[in-house]
Give the backbone structure.
Amino acid sequence: MPVDVNRPGPWTHRNLTARGTRFHVALAGPEAPSGSGLLTLLIHGFPECWWTWRHVIPALAQAGHRVAALDLRGLEHERQRGRGGCGAAAARASACR
């Protein structure tokens, strides 16, 4: 059973497509006009997911950064196949708060 990784918080969720591959990203902070401003891209390690950055995202956004926490492909693929992946990691981390 897949777990929803779109956890509520001070961020929004989007699915982006690049070269036919879909990526999930959690976004926060001020949106700058196209082509201006800096983006802080947060990349998790294996076997983590965007949820790893749940405490960092709001702090960076409050400091004025546009933040994107990207889910890497391997864990989304495992989640879709019912093996847990990011959703299971997020559920475990949420239970540990």
Q: What stands out?
A: The CA atoms of residues 39 and 86 lie 23 Å apart.
